[in-house]
Amino acid sequence: MTTPTPTLSLSDQARNHLNQMHIVYTGQSDDDYHFTVTHDGVEYSPVYNGVEKAWQCACDGFDTAQGACLHTEAVKLWRQQARSGNGQASPPPPQTADHRKPPKPKAIAKDKETPADTTEQETPPAAAKGNRRKPKTPGPTSAFPTPASGVTGWTKEIAEALLAPFAPEMVGWKAQATTKDGSRAMAVAYVDARAVADRLDATVGPENWSDQYAVLGEQRTPNGQEYVVACRLTVLGVTKEDVGSGEDHKAAYSDAFKRAAVRYGVARYLYSLDKQWVAYDAQKRQLKEMPALPAWAVPA
Fold it and tell me: Of 137, 151, 155, 300, whose CB count within 10 A is highest?
């Protein structure tokens, strides 16, 4: 009687073939993280969705029931090696806030933070994408910092790491107010929500923080209608909450997430920067020049 040969799981198959594969993280589009897996001279393109936390691959072997195939499992192993320092792979995509559009909420009011009085401030600029200079998109190394591992509780080192300034290329600038003639604007600094998620991953590890959201309602502003969202951010068992707003649900979720992270010290230093008035293009609704960060606001 012959003993049946056990069927290897996809994970075991991937482990057996991993050394024969060349895996590369190729970039991000919206909430999708793209990879290429070259195996036996054929290139495959698995994709990880940070919102759905699910994998897709166009190969014939992709199992829709499991949401996996040889190539997605290989990328997972590749990421695990990067976490442990046993490979040259980039770590996994950072956890992202759930930006799925919730039901339309009832209108409520919300107190807004107002900037400090200044002699030049007159009116807030009209809402427009051109008002902001987005932070530069980091390359794969910056986009996927090595996640922390083995973190079990709060320490002085963790608190200091969360408070640390971001690299200058990760900091963007936006116009918060303009003069009456529209020739100058007060520039304020900000960081992208993904940079904040990266900081949490790199400092405490993806498994040691989580976020929850509640849509509070809508509010009218000088720039039109905005959505208001609350974020409850839990880091190493400690939960803090803040409220954000935006012209759409996704912007409101991101704003709430960043504000909650500030309560742990992430990007809090940006609030201590001196207000700077710079040349402003009222027609294009964008800053003509970008302020320079002081030496204390740049990593050593």
Answer: 151
